[in-house]
Design a protein that fits this description.
Chain lengths: 341, 341
C-alpha cells in the first residue's frame, strides 16, 4: 500500500497511483485528524472521496505517530494526551475516540489503537505495552461495533517488541478477538534484520492464514520477499517515495542513487528493465539534473517509478505464488537485485 | 509557451504538458549553461531530447537573467562578465558565445543576446541599451550564420525602455536585420500597465505582421488579450505555475486564491467551467488541504490546471481570430473573468 499520510501519496496524483496499479492506499489518522480535520473529510464523503482516489483505503490508528511524539505525549491506561506538532494544541486520544475518528474518516480498513513501545524496550516495558494493546483492542472493538462494524473492517495489531513470550501472548490475545485481519506492529523500529525476521516468523504462526496478515511499516524489497515467505499478505511503507525524493530509486538491479555524479551523463532509464511510463521516456541524466535543481518534476518522476516498481514487485510475487514458484522467483529477483552490491 | 527554466516546467511532466495541449516550451540559456551544462544537453541530443519533450523548444538568451544579477555582472560592449549564482564561478557571455551555447542546447527558436535595462532607466541609459542591443544583434546574426542558420531560427529583440523614439529606433534597426521573428523585450519589468500597452502599441507597428511577434515575459490573461489585440502572436510567462505553487490559480471566473480559508470546505473544482483532468476530479477543499500540508501533489494539481487554463485561453483566442470575433471573445472572457473583482 502506497502511503498517503495526509491524504496524498507525496508527489503523486490519484491518476499516477491508478496507472501504477495500486489497489489501496493508506492514510494517517493522526495527520488527517489535525488537518484538514475529521469533519472536513467526513463532509466530503470520507477519505476516498475527499482525495478523489475512489478506491479502497486504510487508516492506521495514529498510535505510532502519537508515540513518536515522545516528549509531548503522556500515556495512561485511559489513552494518550499529546500536543499537535502543528500548533501545540492539546489533544486526547482514547481507543474509543480513535474509533470515532477512523469511522468519520471512513476508510475501508481501520486499525486498532495500539501501544508501540520504542526499541529497545525492557521486557517489563514491552509487557505493559502488550497488556495495554490488548485492553485498548477490546475497547476499540466495542466502540467499533457501536459505530457500525459492517461499514468497515477493524484490524487488530500484535505487539511484544522482540520477546517471543510476549509476542505469543499478544498474538493469542489479539487473535482471540476475531478481527477480520491481523497486523504485526512494533517491528522495523530499529531492531536488526535478524531480529525482525525471527520475531515475524515466531508471531505469524499464531495468526490465522485465512485472514489478511499485515506487516506494518515494512519495507525494502528484500524484507517484503522475506516476509511473504513467512506468509505476510499486506505491507505499507514510505520508502519508495521518500527515498525517491532524496535521490534514490528502487530498480530491478538494486537501489540506484540517481543523484550521484556517475549518472550525470547516463542516457539509460532509471531502471533498464522497467516498462513504467517514466522509464520508457526519461533518462537518469535528466532526472539527476532535476534533482540537482531541486525541481519538483524530478520528485514526481522518481516517486512514480519507485511506486510502480513496488506495485510490480507485488504483482510478480502474487503471480509466482499462484504458479507455485515463489521461492524461485525470490531467488532470481534477489540475484539480479543484489548484483550492484 | 510554458516556461521550463532549467529544462522542466516546474511540477509538470512532459506528459502533463502534452495533455495541456502545449506545443512549444521555453528553456533558459543561462540556467542550462550552468546546469547541467551545455555539453550534457548537446550530447543527449539537444534540449527537446534531453528533457524528453520531443517537440519544439525556444531558448531565451540568458541576457535577462544575467542583467538581473545586477551586483555581480559587469557589462561592456564586448559582453557580460558575471558570476554563477550556484557557486560564484566567473563566466563571460558575448553575443558570439551565447550563439554557440544556444546552438549547442539546440532549441528550434533561439533569442539574440540583448541588453535589457532596468526600469526605470534614464533616456541616456536606455539609448545605450538600444545601441548595444543592435550591435550585439548583428554579432549574434553573424555567428548564428557561421554555426548553421538553417538548423534553427534566430529571433531579434527590440529594446528601448518606455521611450517612443528609442523603441522606434530599436524596432527599425532590429527589423532591418531580417530575423525570421521579432520579439519585444524590456516590458513587464516594473512599468505601469498603461505604459506597457502604449509602448507595445507603438513598437509593434514597426514589426512585420507576416513574421511572429513575441512579447517576452507577459503575462496575466488580461495582458495577453490586450497584447493580442495589438497583434502579438507569442508569449511566455512563469505566472501560471509560479502562482499555482503559492496558492493561486487562474480560472474562467478570475484568479482563485485557493489557499484561502473560504475554500476549506468547497467541493467545487478549482475552475467550475474547466474540463481539465484536475477540475474533473479534485475539489478546492482537497487542493487547499494539500497546500496547507506543503504537499507536492498540491503543486502538481494546481500547476496543471493553470497551465491548461492558459493553453485553453490561447486556443480560444486563435479560434476567435479565425472566426473573426476576437473582440467579442475578449469582452465576454473579461466580463466573466473580472466578476470576482
Amino acid at each position: 500500500m502506497p502511503v498517503g499520510t495526509t491524504g496524498a501519496v507525496r508527489a503523486l496524483t490519484a491518476e499516477d497511483l491508478e496507472s501504477c496499479g495500486a489497489e489501496i492506499i493508506l492514510g494517517n489518522t493522526y495527520h488527517l485528524y489535525l488537518r484538514p480535520g475529521t469533519e472536513i473529510v467526513k463532509r466530503h464523503g470520507g477519505l476516498a472521496r475527499f482525495n478523489s482516489w475512489n478506491k479502497p483505503t486504510l487508516t492506521d490508528s495514529g498510535g505510532y505517530q502519537v508515540f513518536s511524539l515522545k516528549d509531548i505525549a503522556k500515556v495512561t491506561d485511559e489513552g494518550v494526551e499529546f500536543r499537535s506538532h502543528l500548533d501545540g494544541s492539546p489533544h486526547f486520544f482514547t481507543p474509543e475516540r480513535v474509533m470515532e475518528i477512523e469511522h468519520a474518516i471512513g476508510a475501508d480498513i481501520i486499525m486498532a489503537f495500539d501501544q508501540c513501545v520504542p526499541y529497545p524496550a525492557s521486557e517489563v516495558t514491552a509487557s505493559h505495552g502488550v497488556r495495554r494493546t490488548y485492553d485498548w483492542a477490546k475497547r476499540c472493538l466495542k466502540r467499533h461495533r457501536e459505530l457500525g462494524e459492517d461499514q468497515r473492517a477493524l484490524f487488530g495489531i500484535v505487539q511484544g517488541s522482540v520477546y517471543e513470550n510476549l509476542r505469543t501472548q499478544s498474538a493469542e490475545e489479539i487473535v482471540g478477538l476475531e478481527f477480520p485481519g491481523n497486523a504485526i506492529g512494533g517491528l522495523s523500529v530499529g531492531e536488526s534484520k535478524d531480529e525482525m525476521e525471527s520475531m515475524l516468523a515466531h508471531t505469524i504462526q499464531y495468526l490465522p492464514a485465512d485472514k489478511p496478515r499485515y506487516l506494518m511499516g515494512v519495507g525494502y524489497p528484500e524484507d517484503i520477499l522475506m516476509a511473504v515467505s513467512h506468509g505476510v499478505d499486506m505491507f505499507d511503507c514510505v520508502l519508495p517515495t521518500r527515498n525517491a525524493r532524496t535521490g534514490c530509486v528502487f530498480t530491478s538491479v538494486g537501489p540506484v542513487v540517481y543523484r550521484n555524479a556517475e549518472f550525470a551523463d547516463d542516457s539509460q532509464p532509471l531502471d533498464p528493465n522497467c516498462d513504467c511510463r517514466v522509464c520508457r521516456r526519461y533518462s537518469r541524466a535528466y532526472i539527476r539534473h532535476l534533482y540537482n535543481q531541486s525541481e519538483i518534476t524530478g520528485m514526481v518522476l522518481s516517486s512514480y517509478h519507485s511506486t510502480y516498481f513496488y506495485q510490480q514487485l507485488m504483482r510478480d510475487i502474487r503471480a509466482s505464488i499462484e504458479a507455485g514458484r515463489f521461492a524461485q522467483f525470490r531467488r532470481e529477483f534477489l540475484a539480479r537485485y543484489q548484483q550492484r552490491g
